[in-house]
Design a protein that fits this description.
It contains 3 helices and 9 strands, in the order H-E-E-E-E-E-E-H-E-E-E-H. It is of the alpha+beta class. The protein starts with a helix and ends with a helix.
Amino acid sequence: MAHCISCFMKKMKFFEQIKDHTYVSRETIKGNVTKVNRELGFIYVDDHPFSLNDTFIRVGQHIQLDVGNVSKELPYQQVVEKFEVLEEPDKVLLKKEWLSKKEDKLSLLVIGDEVFSNPFKNPHKEDLTLIDEITIKKSLSSIKAPIIFLFNTEELVFQTDSYDNLLKYLFETEQLLPLTNDRK
């Protein structure tokens, strides 16, 4: 019996050492959720990717992540251990009127002055092939302009303050479309 307890204690000590030395480092990250992809199971916090597929995480939230860094050499090898929502996005962004009406299409909500919103008034159709509707507002509720919001048929999926970032997101989404369609 004493031998079994001794073996058990050695195994427990071994597992504690593994747990303590699994992560290279730990850190707490605070930021805004700028992108969510439910099909592929990731989010972006201030444009940094994390593997996390939780229905409580939404674009526009200000969150805090406790992450463990698995490797010094490999970027993005972080494990999210815990998250906390510090601030919810403006409730006006949860309205169904902004959602895309068509499956596999997106709708745009652009908030900003004339100069910022000008590219959306006569857009290059080939740049915005995934967009089915564009709404332009000078201001909206407590949302700080200029900003661009992108919605699918279910939720807000992306936000940015840059037209170039929007085009990059649309290109990435278009490239991933066959993969996400295969997973459905």
